[in-house]
Amino acid sequence: MQRNRETLSQLALERLMHTACGQKRLDDFAEVVIFGSMSVGLERRDSDIDILCVSNDDYQLKSNGLDLIVISSESTHSPIWLESELASHIAEYGTWIKGSSRWIDDVHIGRRAIQNKRRRVAAFLKALADSWFRLDTGFRVKYSVKLRRETQRLLLLERGTPVPATKILDSFWDSVALPPDEVHDRLRGLTSSAPSNFANDLIGRIDSFFHGQIERTAIP
Amino acid sequence: MAVDAFISSLTGSGVIRKRKGGKTPSFAEVFERLFGPDNEITDKANDFEDFIEGYFGWVSPEDMRSAHEAFVVIQGIVRQATKGVLDAAK
Predict the structure, then answer these.
(1) Where residue A86 sits, what CATH number does that domain have?
(2) Closest alpha carbon within chain A to B11
């Protein structure tokens, strides 16, 4: 559901005002930015709204229907922030509903963000290889989805492309990246020393997802 | 993942039933079914889930500490609850 900037802004402020910090500190926020699925009109009915506020502190808050990140103006100029996956996502897809960005021109995907993602994918694979066949089928589905998305994010970061909302990874991968073979090939490489029954089952699930996506796209 | 393996083990061995529709119960639901909704362990399991939920793929050190504290309480209650059974089995 694509919302216009005004209704998006109203919704964000309503959700913020339901939090203690929002009531007390809305005026202190120099910037309020909506990002994630809602910013690009790809939210589900039950989607949370993701908001970044620039203020004097650094903290995070998760409450009903709201995922809030508050960072200080100072932090917005730090390399850790400017080179992060999240900053590049917000710079590309965020909708500013208060203030204007003083930092997006300095954002670029840094080596640290890529290394963190590589470590995360590797850690996932290592832990999954040990417990895969002890996990209920539902959990195997859950982790194959997580791992596919994280691999997609890694491939994008390595190419210097900001990571879009998850819905785009799930439904419009061909619009932002190379064919699904790239995910398959990367996972094959990463699981080359893992037990083959684990690697085949995991990658088979991910291949089936992409195969289904191609079939869905092909339906007139 | 360890929590999911734990839940898989309970559902796989029939100790805990899956929800209608075949979904596995949450960590807190496992304790709710075993100890009741008002037991401290169920609250702690809920807290634990909240703490490890993370945020954009990242769990803060404070949340990790809090999750560990909640887990230690859960462990203590489980040990206490199973003590009589284990003693009897000796």
Answers:
(1) 3.30.460.10
(2) A136
Q: What percent of chain A has pLDDT over 90?
A: 56
- Tell me, yes or no, whether A54 and A153 share the same domain: no
Query: What is the ipTM score, two decimals?
Result: 0.80
pLDDT at A64: 73
Determine whether the interchain pair A62/B55 forms a contact, defined as Cβ–Cβ distance below 8 Å. yes
Task: State how far residue B5 is from chain A, nearest Cα, in angstroms.
Answer: 5
Of A87, A106, A125, the residue at which a domain comes to its end is: A106
Query: Which range marks the domain in which residue A33 is found?
Result: 5-106
Determine the Cα–Cα distance for residues A80 and A116; give it in Å rounded to an integer: 12
The closest alpha carbon to A137, from B58, B4, B90, belongs to B4
Alpha helices in A1-62 (DSSP H): 5-17, 20-25
**Where are the alpha helices (H) located in A46-195, listed in sequence order?**
73-76, 79-82, 85-93, 111-131, 137-158, 166-171, 173-176, 181-190
- Report how many Cβ contacts below 8 Å link chain A to chain B: 39
The predicted-structure confidence for B26-85, as pLDDT tens digits, reads as follows 999 999 999 999 999 999 999 999 888 876 667 788 889 999 999 999 999 999 888 877
- Counting Cα atoms < 13 Å in the Cβ hemisphere of A147 gives 33
Domain count, chain B: 1
Provide the pLDDT for residue A25.
67
